[in-house]
Amino acid sequence: MSAIRSLCALTVAGLALVWVGTALAQDTPRWSDIDCAQSRLATPPGLQCKATQNYAGGDRSSGSAGGTFRRFLASGRMAGAGVFYYLAEATSLGASVMEGASLQKDIRSEMTDGNMIHEFSPMGNRGGADYMTFMTGAGNSCVGIRRYGPSQGDGYKWILYGVSCDPRGRTITEAEIDGFISGASYRGS
Asked: In the chain, count of helices (H) and strands (E)?
């Protein structure tokens, strides 16, 4: 249950744009529920999706002082695990999205029990994504991922993040890590 609370808090944090940064200029991103088929974030069925409008302005996560951006979120349960996927996208030619911190720092800052997270694995790369496994303070086995889109400007066209935590007492398997990594992708041109 603690993993579900952690993932709900992670969703709220994602909605607040803490993970990738808050807008600093013209527009303020506003989150709305959307049909997952309308999202740039392709995910397995059964998740709930949200998106911001296309907004203009500087952003801590952008490589430029301006441009336009959009964010997408999918969360829920997959095969018994609580999951969260988050996509940051630059939608204009001059804009780019950049990583804000190390994957471990991103995970630690976004989990409700971030100071209790332990046993981080060394960062690896599988299926085109950086990943780390870790344990929550409540004993949940988790994996965090980050996948980069094509280079654009000073950063990337998009960056996809995700966290999956299995129920307490169940160790996340290699097959589950692979499934979570392959479970989401960028849907767009």
From this structure: 3, 13
Q: d(Cα 81, Cα 59) in Å, to the nearest integer?
A: 32
pLDDT on residue 89:
94
d(CA 83, CA 33): 17
Residue 19 DSSP one-character state = T
Q: Which domain holds residue 9?
A: 2-186
For residue range 128-148, what is the model confidence (pLDDT) as tens digits?
A: 999 999 998 888 899 999 999
Closest listed residue to residue 154, CA positions, set 98, 92, 70, 99? 98
Beta bridge partners, 51, equal: 32, 72
Helix orientation angle between 103-110 and 2-15, rounded to the nearest 10 degrees: 110
Question: Number of folded domains in the chain?
Answer: 1
Distances in whole angstroms, Cα of residue 136 to Cα of each of 7, 48, 86, 111, 174: 11, 24, 20, 9, 18
Provide CB contacts within 8 A for 136, sequence distance 6+: 2, 3, 6, 111, 113, 116, 117, 142, 165
pLDDT tens, position by position, 65-116: 578 999 999 999 988 889 999 999 999 988 998 887 888 888 887 776 666 7
